[in-house]
Predict the 3D structure of the following.
Amino acid sequence: MESAGRRGGEGLAGLIEYQAGSVVSRTLLEKKTGTVTLFAFDRGQGLSEHTAPFDAMVIVLEGVADIVISGTSHRVSAGQIIVMPADDPHALKAPERFKMLLIMIRS
């Protein structure tokens, strides 16, 4: 896979496009120790509640995301970061289109 950093001229948000009625993902890095994945959520799309065995950090690159962690709702806007702790149930919803970078570190 071509390294995102070698493409030049594009910010992270430019490396993924929205698709009507969908959630699009693009894995930038996948190693035993963790993953870095870009997501583009169309308005109204989301990920249902689930858990992960590792902490995950979300950086919203564009738009606004509604993220629920252990029953507490958080509105996260472009440029903001939130951490979803390991084993805590969480869900994501797009009140408008948004793009995010998900960094998961396995330990």
